[in-house]
């Protein structure tokens, strides 16, 4: 079934309006207003009924700062603006700090050492160079931290292990487990006698096939035995957490949907995991509230919900209304906290007591008046052979403007990264930047996106570059069939994996009249040989084993079909990107110049995989607006500096 919301017309405007070309509308939602106030919160946790979290601060060039909430729910800064609390394990990082009583331990982004903060004492490093850490937990019984460590001291592939880090002396880390390519998510039992954690090995990713393991300690803290939690076939397990009664809870997709299970470690030899919650929903995160209940965040049909689960009966009761996203749930002695967003509000911290919740902390973010706020409309559209895909459609919205009579708005198709990721309906000021200027935006969840079950997620394997491109194109065709958009003015944009889909769509489809790639992949073969450990075998799943299937890599690489790209292309790239190196953008830029296709390449020093500095994000977004203006024939409002498009070698517009 195809559904669309009717709460907002495809093109809306007031009775008294100015007629202007779509794209040329004046808007108070500027790139500067977005990125100079673009703070966000993540990694919320509680300790001794105190709430801690990470806030990415625009004023500190996007650095991650550690905060806590005081009794008035005001943020108290705990780490310096000169530091960034951020791990680089797996390059993407994980939970970068730990609160243990009066002490705080955190990973410093610049050198990746663990630093300890104690009251009245300057931060002190407790680990060595070329070692990275994340997901640390406190093992008080043995006066140590248990952490995921990534060792970069050798010349070969970095080694991921579970280690014990002494906090009483400077002795070498003790390796507790080293039997897999990757390790994550340790959780210590209440008695301190065992730790549960997740492992996986090439070519799997953590959402493909993982193993839940348990280390049991001897009295001196050494490893006595390793238990593998029973599982039948491939399954993706995440978020292990011990309850106070010693039962181990976790989320797994044994039956297609990520849902809540538990395992009794005390009788591990005779038990299999028990399903706690039998629902066709995707559990995103959870926290054990007490012996009888847990708070969960789950996704269903593109919306996130908060619910309470009875751990004895499996009954579930929703709490309040749907969110765009919910996660990072953490409990105190008598309440819970979580991070959530809505179509009207970006990520904020909420307090939950009983079934009543309220927002208690909102980081600095752009304020968008409702007269300029486009509300996303969830859609389901046909694709493939009797299949469906999903997305959110944002119509143009500006109280002061309307497009010329008889015309329809241009469309920007936005493709998420991952590629096994997902988009949601959270307030995204960058989307409102476009809609308030007269663009429509389609934020697509192609086959392979998370949130719709394991079977839907697996549809991308080994079809990357096929089904994602097909879904982006079919979404455009469906929107055009509904007279929502001008099919002759359609652009596609995406970052990382979304950048690859952008380039592939430009090379293998004729739907798109312009494209913008943020650090996208143009040559799959080079990526297979030249990327970081975490994703070094990812393409085995997405495409097929390399080099055995080299011909398929060649066929799906946009650089090898660059002669098919005739529409203009904008390329934006961080020069410090270790995930998708700059040569991926540079190769296709040079090839397009040779073919006399209008193109521009803008690089940013000091930026990695994703831009963090406000000035660079402002330049990127304004450049994109100028680019579309040149392609679609309108003059952007606001005096945007034009992007110089190269049409042939040594020539530019």
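^ Assign residues to that structure.
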């Amino acid at each position: 079934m195809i559904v669309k919301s009717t709460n907002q017309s495809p093109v809306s405007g007031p009775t008294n309006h100015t007629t202007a070309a779509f794209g040329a509308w004046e808007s108070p939602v500027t790139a500067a207003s977005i990125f100079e106030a673009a703070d966000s919160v993540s990694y919320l946790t509680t300790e001794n009924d105190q709430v801690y979290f990470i806030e990415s601060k625009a004023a500190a060039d996007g650095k991650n700062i550690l905060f806590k909430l005081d009794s008035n729910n005001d943020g108290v800064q705990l780490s310096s603006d000169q530091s960034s609390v951020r791990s680089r394990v797996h390059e993407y990082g994980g939970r970068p700090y730990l609160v243990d009583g009066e002490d705080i331990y955190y990973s410093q982004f610049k050198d990746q050492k663990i630093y300890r903060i104690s009251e009245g004492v300057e931060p002190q490093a407790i680990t060595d160079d070329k070692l990275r850490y994340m997901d640390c937990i406190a093992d008080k019984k043995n006066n140590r931290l248990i952490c995921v460590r990534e060792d970069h001291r050798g010349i070969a592939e970095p080694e991921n292990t579970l280690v014990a880090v002494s906090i009483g002396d400077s002795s070498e880390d003790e390796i507790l487990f080293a039997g897999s390519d990757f390790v994550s998510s340790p959780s210590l039992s209440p008695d301190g006698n065992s730790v549960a954690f997740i492992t996986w090995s090439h070519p799997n990713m953590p959402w493909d096939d993982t193993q839940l393991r348990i280390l049991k300690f001897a009295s001196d803290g050494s490893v006595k035995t390793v238990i593998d939690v029973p599982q039948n076939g491939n399954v993706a397990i995440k978020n292990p957490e011990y309850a106070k009664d010693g039962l181990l809870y976790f989320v797994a997709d044994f039956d297609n949907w990520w849902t809540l299970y538990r395992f009794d470690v005390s009788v591990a030899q005779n038990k299999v995991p028990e399903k706690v919650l039998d629902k066709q929903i995707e559990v995103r995160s959870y926290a054990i509230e007490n012996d009888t209940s847990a708070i969960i965040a789950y996704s269903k049909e593109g919306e996130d919900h908060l619910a309470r689960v009875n751990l004895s009966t499996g009954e579930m009761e929703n709490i309040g209304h749907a969110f765009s996203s919910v996660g990072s749930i953490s409990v105190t002695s008598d309440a819970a906290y979580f991070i959530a967003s809505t179509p009207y509000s970006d990520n904020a911290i909420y307090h939950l007591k009983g079934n009543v919740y309220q927002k208690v902390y909102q980081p600095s973010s752009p304020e968008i008046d409702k007269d300029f706020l486009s509300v996303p409309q969830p859609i389901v559209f046909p694709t493939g052979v009797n299949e469906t895909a999903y997305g959110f459609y944002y119509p143009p919205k500006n109280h002061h403007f309307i497009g010329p009579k008889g015309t329809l708005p241009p469309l920007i198709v936005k493709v998420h990264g991952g590629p096994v990721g997902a988009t949601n309906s959270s307030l995204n000021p960058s989307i409102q930047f476009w809609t308030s200027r007269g663009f429509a935006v389609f934020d697509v969840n192609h086959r392979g996106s998370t949130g719709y079950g394991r079977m839907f997620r697996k549809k991308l394997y080994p079809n990357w570059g096929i089904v994602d491109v097909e879904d982006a194109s079919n979404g455009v065709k469906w929107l055009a069939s509904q007279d929502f958009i001008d099919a002759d003015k359609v652009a596609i944009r995406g970052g990382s994996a979304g950048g690859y889909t952008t380039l592939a769509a430009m090379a293998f489809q004729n739907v798109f009249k312009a494209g913008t790639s943020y650090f996208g992949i143009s040559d799959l073969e080079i990526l297979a040989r030249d990327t970081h450990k975490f994703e070094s075998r990812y393409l085995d799943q997405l495409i097929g084993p390399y080099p055995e299937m080299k011909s398929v890599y060649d066929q799906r690489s946009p650089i090898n079909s660059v002669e098919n790209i005739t529409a203009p292309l904008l390329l934006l790239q961080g020069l410090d990107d270790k995930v998708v190196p700059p040569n991926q953008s540079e190769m296709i830029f040079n090839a397009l110049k040779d073919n006399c296709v209008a193109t521009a390449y803008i690089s940013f020093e000091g930026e990695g995989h994703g831009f963090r500095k406000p000035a660079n994000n402002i330049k990127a977004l304004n450049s994109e607006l100028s680019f579309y203006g040149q392609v679609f024939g309108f003059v952007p409002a606001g005096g945007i500096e034009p992007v110089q498009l190269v049409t042939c070698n040594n020539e530019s517009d």
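The chain has a mean pLDDT of 94.
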